[in-house]
Amino acid sequence: MSDQTLPQAPETSGKSLSPQTPPVGLTRRKLLGTAGATGLVVGAAGGAAGYAAAPEQATPLSSIGSGQEMFHVKHQPGITQGLQARGHLVAFDLAAGAGRKEAAALLRRWSETARRLMAGEAAKDDDTDVARDAGPSSLTVTFGFGHSFFARTGLEKQRPVSLDPLPDFSSDQLDLSRSNGDLWVQIGANDALVAFHALRAIQKDAGRAAKVRWQMNGFNRTPGATAHPMTARNLMGQIDGTRNPKPAEADFAKRIFVPESGADSGSGLGSNDPAWMANGSYAVVRRIRMLLDDWEQLSAHAQEQVIGRRKSDGAPLTGGTETAEMDLEKTDANGDLVVPINAHARITRPDQNGGAAMLRRPFSYHDGIDADGVPDAGLLFVCWQADPLRGFVTVQRKLDRGDALSKYIRHESSGLFAVPGGAAEGEYVGQRLLEG
Fold it and tell me: What are the start and end residues of every segment in region (Disordered) (predicted)?
């Protein structure tokens, strides 16, 4: 976790349809309503909705159902979009005997399925009808390649230097069976059935070419659940991630995306990447378990000292609002730093890490309660950067040396994936690698 937040109105490579506009390509789905004429209450911000009763008649899709993201874009979908209510992360290993040819055919199938489902259409072959009655619900499907993929396909010379394995960290307690993988898929949507439908379609498309290595399920607050847009809270109850890079910032692209071939990155980011990674990014994926029983024994004041921000509104302990600049030198009447030297928010600040920045786009998770009543819950941490060594690794090394939050979390799985740029019309994701 880090002290960064997703933009509230991020620039997206796709588009969102208004509640009055049916999604393009919605060929197999009925435009069924999600509220009766008297059941829908729209908040002042136009995004909050509540339901007084079950729907009694068909009405146009709600704003959540009609949201649509485009598949054929410069950067793959699922990176710059805001947090989605439901997510699935899944890694695959190529089957024994499968190589470059089989991988290319698989990515072609996956890309076509993702394009269709993101448009609100049925899968091409043997659709399960799980999401027949829903709109696209801002579905995104994102594909990446792991370090091992390149040896399996004879493409070692095309493996990016930036994909070298992450170093070991002292706080790691990694389950290798739930880490890494040849291929990685991220699925996100604002409806749980739409997300599951995509997961099932992707799994079926894998056929005999690849088998699931691991799979994880996550969630976030549903859009419209608050009276106005706000930074999400994590399962510790903290407003999580107030300083995420924003697409409107001048240096956003060079921090998050690999530049196009021959382009000046502005700071060397991504300069060693092969041409097929143009407009792509690197995803670090970590399953971070939160030790909630220990955390919840702390007073609210003690929790704020660990984080360095007020729990109520996310403002720095030095005062102001959530977005106020943190005064790292401010002291109290006793001469002690107001923001402790080991506070999480202090350590993760880009200006304390040589400008290192990551675009965080996580999901919370809860995988049940064990026999002792301890919840297996926490964060499916996903962050994006043009160079993982200058992004995630730089920050995590510093956290490893003395983050107050480390006592209350445990990193249990890890992965690093090269995510190429978006597929152009008529192309599939990864085509420039697999057919180049």
Answer: 1-26
